[in-house]
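Summary for the steering committee. One of the milestones for this cycle was to obtain a three-dimensional model of the protein with zinc ion bound, which we needed before selecting residues for the alanine scan. The sequence and ligand used are listed below.
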Amino acid sequence: MTLRIVKSSGGSIKVSLIECPACGADLSGRKKPSAHLLTEHVPEDFGLSAPGRRVVADGGER
Ligand SMILES: [Zn+2]
């Protein structure tokens, strides 16, 4: 995952995603890089379980 970290003169820190961690798309020129993640990918692309589905560490159901 490639991030750009910019510290403003006021001391606040802005972190921008400049490359998609799933497909490697260049996001540096986009106003809202997160929109790409929401529209182009599903949670499984990032190794996450689908919404509403809970995976228990020991593999059992709860
Ligand atoms: Zn992507």
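Key point for the committee: The CA atoms of residues 17 and 34 lie 8 Å apart.
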